[in-house]
Amino acid sequence: ESTLGAAAAQSDRYFGVAIASGRLNDSVYTSIANREFNSVTAENEMKIDATQPQRGQFNFTAGDRVYNWAVQNGKQVRGHTLAWHSQQPGWMQSLSGGELRRAMTDHITGVMTHYRGKIVEWDVVNEAFADGGSGARRDSNLQRSGNDWIEVAFRAARAADPAAKLCYNDYNVENWNSAKTQAMYAMVRDFKQRGVPIDCVGFQAHFNEGNPYNSNFRTTLQSFAALGVDVSVTELDIQGASPATFANVTNDCLAVARCVGITVWGVRDSDSWRSHHTPLLFNNDGSKKPAYDAVLNAL
Ligand code: XIL
């Protein structure tokens, strides 16, 4: 096959990209994105601050722009993200306790109802675990609302759109031998045992000096899949864009039957949130980097 999306589709997987609505008028950007990828994640446009800037006033203008571009070009859409400590609008940042809990479930219901039946998988909860060796939950207003906030979010999500697959998504959880990975694993195992509705786990896979790729990523993917959830690589970028590392990540996903797809976090290096890391598959002029060929050959 001659594109990432078509090559991934040979094994019924997707190869996706994060799309920024503000770049959809850049024809170099859109032509690469349309040609190469068959799944889309909105980089920021479906986050809490974008979709509910004022309490009770939903705004789907930018989210719909990304959604419509994707669907009009034949791509599936991942929803990102409904409950998160970051990119909360000011009104939500100032809430706590039961009022925040109610705002969280109202937000999940409001956004998922707007996109009901249209989103293949939603990142319902993002980044709930702390970094470092504690294995603890991350401190946040959501966490302080009660340790059950994550399962409450998942139950609200299932009720709002029963057809959507519901994912937990996090970063620095690729290395199997890390406390954060093990804490996430224990949570998913507990949810599956107790019937909390969770269908998938997303591994952001932002690899850099602080979170280097380790070949035990395949063990991580296999271990989570064995709990009975789909797994996916949701925000892949690699500092320096080593072709070998991009190939390893691709091969790790292909080795796990329940690894349903890979999403890279932007098109060209200049589109990346960490552009100084030159972490993506396309140069600023739109040409393919060696990492692109490595991924295509691996698929
Ligand atoms: C990033 C976006 O790429 C930036 O444009 C924005 O300023 C901050 O958020 N984990 C996530 C993503 O789940 O939503 C983040 O995206 C990157 C880290």
From TrEMBL:
Keywords: Carbohydrate metabolism, Glycosidase, Hydrolase, Polysaccharide degradation, Signal, Xylan degradation. The active site is at E235 (nucleophile). Signal peptide: none annotated. Residues 1-298 form the GH10 domain. GO terms for molecular function: endo-1,4-beta-xylanase activity. The keyword RNA-binding does not apply. GO terms for biological process: xylan catabolic process. It catalyses: Endohydrolysis of (1->4)-beta-D-xylosidic linkages in xylans. Its EC number is 3.2.1.8. The keyword Transcription regulation does not apply. Belongs to the glycosyl hydrolase 10 (cellulase F) family. This is Beta-xylanase. It comes from Streptomyces harbinensis. The lineage of its organism: Bacteria, Bacillati, Actinomycetota, Actinomycetes, Kitasatosporales. The chain holds residues 43 to 341 of 473 of the full protein.
